[in-house]
Amino acid sequence: MDFLFSLADKIGFAVCHQIPSRTIIIGKVYLPLCGRTSGIYIGFLISAITLFIIFRKKENGLAPLYIIIIFCLFIFSTGLDWALSHLGIYESSNNIRFITGFLAGSSIIAISFPVFNKQYYRISNDLRIFKSSVTSIVYILILFIFIILTLLRFSFLSLFYYYLSAFAVLFTFFFTNLFTVLLIPAFANKAERLASKFIIAPSIISLVLTFFELFAFFKLKELFLNLWT
């Protein structure tokens, strides 16, 4: 348990400043990521799970324009919150940082999800995601329910969120690398279903890249802090 706790902290160190005052506390446990970074990575993970559950017809069509605009506004919101806070125009809070970060992370994966389907599956369906307003509402509701549950900060979920945030970092790096690998023609458009032998080689490559990227970020940050101090 101590090893996993330490590993999660190191993963957080690699991608986040880990300033205590900007970190969400659940129970007596500080998450390994700050509020905004926790939101981005957890939002990416939760949204990915939701998308794979809702859209099971291998849809490869982008969401309607108005939905994409909403997603872009969500992404913009976290940048705006950071900029205004950084410039001293107003003082953000960990709750706001988490919410805007979560919406940004979930929007990034939602925009890229149909492209993943088009690259991964041998035959995908030319159907738009979020074409139905009901589906869009359900998706948004799921995200906001998770946001609310997080902000309630139930102490018995402290370790769950601690490890969830670290796992979300790993998943985001892995999925981003997988998405990139699938752009290579040798790996693209092979699979008939999500669980397929054609996911094995790209997944191994993506895992290796994820390990080296996080290790490099960790070492570079460690070197920078040593030089700075």
Brief description of this entry?
Helices cover 68% and strands 7% of the residues.
Features:
229 residues, mainly alpha, two-stranded antiparallel ribbon, two-stranded parallel ribbon, 68% helix, globular
Alpha-beta content class: mainly alpha
Rg (C-alpha, Å): 18 Å
> Strand content of the residues, in percent?
5-15%
Major beta-sheet overview: 2 strands, antiparallel
Structure description:
- The chain has helices at 2-15, 35-54, 65-86, 94-120, 133-152, 158-181, 200-228; strands spanning 23-26, 29-34, 59-61, 125-128.
- The protein has 229 residues and is mainly alpha-helical.
- A two-stranded antiparallel ribbon has the order 1-2. Strands 3-4 form a two-stranded parallel ribbon.
- A hairpin with a 2-residue loop joins strand 1 (23-26) and strand 2.
- Helix 1 (2-15) packs across helix 6 (158-181), helix 1 packs across helix 7 and helix 2 runs antiparallel to helix 5 (133-152).
- The chain starts with a helix and ends with a helix.
Topology:
Blueprint lengths: L1 H14 L7 E4 L2 E6 H20 L4 E3 L3 H22 L7 H27 L4 E4 L4 H20 L5 H24 L18 H29 L1
Parallel strand pairs: 3-4
Antiparallel strand pairs: 1-2
